[in-house]
Structures are given as structure tokens and as C-alpha cells.
Amino acid sequence: MTSQGAGAATGGAGLPPLTTLPVGDHGLLIELPTSRDVEALHAELLRRAAAGTLPAVREMVPAARTVFLDGLADPSALAAELAGWRIPPPTTDDRPAVELPVHYDGPDLAEVAALWGMSADEVVRLHSGTTFRVAFCGFAPGFGYLTGLPAHLHVPRRENPRTRVPVGSVGLAGAYTGIYPRSSPGGWQLIGRTDAVLWDPRREPAALLAPGTPVRFVPADATVPTPRTAPSRPDRAPEEPAR
Amino acid sequence: MTDRALSVVRAGALTTVQDLGRPSHAHLGVPHSGALDGPAHRLANRLVGNPASAATLETTLTGCAVRLRTAATVAVTGAPCPVTVDGRPAPWGAPVHVPAGAVLEAGTATHGLRAYLAVAGGIDAEPVLGSRATDLLSGLGPAPLADGAVLPLGSPYGPPAAADAVPHAGPAAELVLPFLPGPRDDWFTATGLRTLAAGRFRVSAASNRIGLRTEGPSLERARDGELASEGMPLGALQVPPNGLPVLFLHDHPTTGGYPVVGVVPERWLAAAAQAVPGTPVRFARIGRRPERAARPR
Fold this sequence. Notes:
The complex is a heterodimer of chains A (243) and B (297). Chain A has 243 residues and is an alpha+beta fold. Chain A folds into two domains: 5-82, Gyrase A, domain 2; 98-222, Cyclophilin (Beta Barrel). Chain A has helices at residues 35-51, 75-82, 109-116, 120-128; strands at residues 19-23, 27-31, 59-62, 66-70, 98-103, 131-137, 144-147, 162-165, 169-173, 176-179, 184-186, 189-194, 214-219. In chain A, the strands form three sheets. Chain A has a seven-stranded mixed β-sheet. The longest helix of chain A is centred in the N-terminal third of the chain and has 17 residues, at 35-51. Chain B folds into two domains: 5-152, no CATH class; 175-285, Cyclophilin-like (Cyclophilin, Beta Barrel). Chain B has helices at 38-47, 190-198, 269-273; strands at residues 5-10, 16-18, 56-58, 64-68, 72-78, 83-85, 88-90, 96-98, 103-106, 115-119, 150-152, 175-181, 201-203, 211-215, 230-231, 236-238, 246-248, 255-256, 260-263, 280-285, 293-294. In chain B, the strands form four sheets. Chain B has a seven-stranded mixed barrel with strand order 12-19-16-17-14-13-20. A six-stranded antiparallel β-sheet of chain B has the order 7-6-9-4-1-11, with no helix packed on it. A five-stranded antiparallel β-sheet of chain B has the order 2-3-10-5-8, covered by helices on one side. Chains A and B meet through strand 1, strand 3, strand 4 and helix 2 of A and strand 15, strand 18 and strand 21 of B. Strand 1 (19-23) of chain A pairs antiparallel with strand 21 (293-294) of chain B, so a sheet runs across the interface.
């Protein structure tokens, strides 16, 4: 199921080792060894919710190594039940990837090229040649933490976060690529920008990216420009993304 | 301009439109939002015949004043404060009839922090993801009130239920916050956990709708670094690197990378919403340290 060192020591087929932690009186945090296990469990939870066999939950929040469920009537009963679940490995997502046109002209492109040990053109080729997946959302409505880059291409956050990152900026930090859905402070390494509207509460769905969504970045100059709906871009900004 | 509206005469320090919030969107990074003092919001609505889901105005310390363009029944609950209609005293915590064109004012709270002003029919701001609540973290919902702003009102739902006694807990000299330990209490030393349970904390002036910040002794960590980002519950006691717990209120971020040492159940959060800066805070553990249920490999 997994290929990452100790994390590979999962149990039999469909049985990743998982730890459950109570959160308050109605929450449950389920911890898993790898992001792939999180993906598999999240998919299984969604399947069971759709089939009506999952107890009612108010929130289901996948993250880097956890899935958080809140609003459960009896978290301990679900925790006990989880131990017996068969969880199939995540299947390849056959949905077409959301394609985001990107102008690869970010202020940190040269810095990232240096960190990756290649030219800026090669960074663009590699980044736009990767199929990403939204591992989870957070920080701001519509902000997805996208995985897909191999570990040796993970980059640190900037030592000095910017006080203002423009809306649509495409950044890298740690294992993730992310797109700022609106202007905010931020410490991610910026390699480009997109005109795509990541978040529009008047649109259905409001968020272009939801957990599980496959994503590809397309160099904007290589695509026919596509008209987009007028963006809704609130200016108020919280803190920067955590990771 | 519609007749069913109110105009803002005095917005006060911070007045926002609030309802029951927009739950079930945390996986998209959308905070819960909604009234911080849920019971006070519900009571104000009940007094004017609104369902609990109707939007009210949530004031902060200094109240607000609004001019009604149409006659309407209103009620002010939450933090006790002087209520006037065109300058004449009117009751707090009771339905008040306000004639068209009159100014209803909720004055500075005599104690507590947040008052709720309900108008029959509710504040009819445009809903976003099913809620009219102002979310100060992510900027969803209507902007905070500004002097001169006009807010539409909905049509009254019908005569209010007869109100009898309106319960109100007196001012708390001390904010006691019961909490269930975990999920990340193991990131703190035994000393750090004792500090949480026995330390003398105060409500910090830096508190807001996102979180109630505290001043006091720092909780000692058992390990350094950050967690991988994980889902954050309402009522989380999140501990940033300065070691001072922050109680997550309704506009809290949906994920975070600092450890949550305990969680305050939702029913206690209304008291936190009414605690003014400087109020002593005591954290009271209810329940044992969590049992980690691990499925064997």
C-alpha cells in the first residue's frame, strides 16, 4: 500500500495502523502513518457517508496525517468500529484534473531553481508536468494543500514571510504547492500566478479545489486564454498558512 | 430603498451580523462562524418571534444604535446594558416595540462583553453558504457595521411566544473553563499540564471572535517543533510557541499546526464570549487523559 520506510509496515491488505484520539466530547482525531493512508481512509469515510452507514458528523476534515471528525454522538463507538474496517487503497482518480493556467514569473522562481539544482525552465517543465492532488484545505476558504512533488523537491518556507502575497500566487512550502485564493501575508516560495478564481461563494461549488481534487498547472503562455468569471477577492487577510 | 430596513446610527466598537454560522464546510477551510454567545442569540430571537436561525446583531462592549425605518419588535440580550428608544429607557431582555423612525440604542455593557440585538423578521443580509454571519477570519458574510450603513430586514415571522422570566447568569468574577484533555496533551510535560490546571490566567485584550487569548504562566512543552497541520475543533485550547493557551471561538481557523492540549465543550463557550479583558481565567479538567486506541499492525 505504501512505500515509505516504516510506514510500509501496514497490516494486512486494507488495514493501515491507525490511532484514534478523542477530541472534546463529540470529536475524534484519526491518525495514520502516511498521507496515502489518510487519502484511503477519507475516501472510505465518504463512501460510508454516501451509503448512509456512517454516523452523522458535522465536520470531516482530512489533513496531513489525520482525519478529524466532529459532531459525533458517540465518538468512542466509532473509534471501536474503525478497528475492524477494511480500507481499500486509494484508487487512481479518474476525474479529469482541474487545469490552472499559470504565469511562471514568481519572485522566488530563481531561488526554487537553485534549491532544485536546475534551470527556471526546468522548474516550469517539472511543476507543470506533475499531476497534483488536493490533500486537504485550510488557512483560508479555497486554499488547498496540493501534494505530488517528490520529497527531494520539498523546499523550506521563506525565512522572511512577505506581508502581502498577491491573489492567485502559486507557492511552494514543504511537501505542498498552494495557490493564494486572495491576497494575504505569506511565507511560501512564489513561482507563479494564476488568474483562476479559487474561491467564489456565489459559485456552486464555491471552492474550485476540494480534498481529493486532481490538479495540473499549465504554463499560461502555452494555452489559449480562457475567459473566467469576475473574481471575488476580499482583501481582509488572516495569518499565513501554517505549513 | 426598502421600508423594511434599519440604518446604523452608531456602529459601536465592533458590531457584526450573526446567526448560527456555516458549519459543515471546515474541509474547505471555511470557519464555523456564528454568534459567540449562542444562548443569548437564541433568546433575543425568541423574544421577537424569530426562529433561532434568524440573524441578529452582535455588539462588542460599547453596544450600537440603529434607526428603524419601519415599526418593529426588538429585543436586546447577552451582556446587560441600558436600552433606550429615542432616548427613553426601555427594558433589556424583553420585547420592545419601536415605532418607525425611532432610534433603538444598546448602550455600553454594564458587565459582560457582547449584546445581541434581534429585530422581528431578522437581519436580511445576503447569505453566503447558507449563513448571514460575519466571519472575521476569512471575510465571509456582511462587513462589520459602519455608521450610516443600511441593513435590510426580513418579514416578521408572527407574534412572539409569550416570554416569562428571562434567565441571566450574574457577572462571573472568574471565567471557569472546563476542558477535556487532548488530543495533544502528550506534547506537554506533567509540569505544563499542572500549570494549565492550577495556573492563574487572565483574558488578554488581544482576544477576538477567532480566539480568547490568555495571559499567564507558560505551559512547558515536552517536545519542540510543529505538528503536521490537523483539523481544529471549536473550543480547542491551542498552545502556540509562547506557551499561552488560546481558546478557539467561532471564527477559528479550520486547521492548525500548534498542539491542542484540551477542548472546552461547546456549552461553556458562551461564558467565554462574555469575559472582558482582564477577567481571571481558570481551566478545570473534566475527565481523564484520553485513551489512545491504536489498531495493532
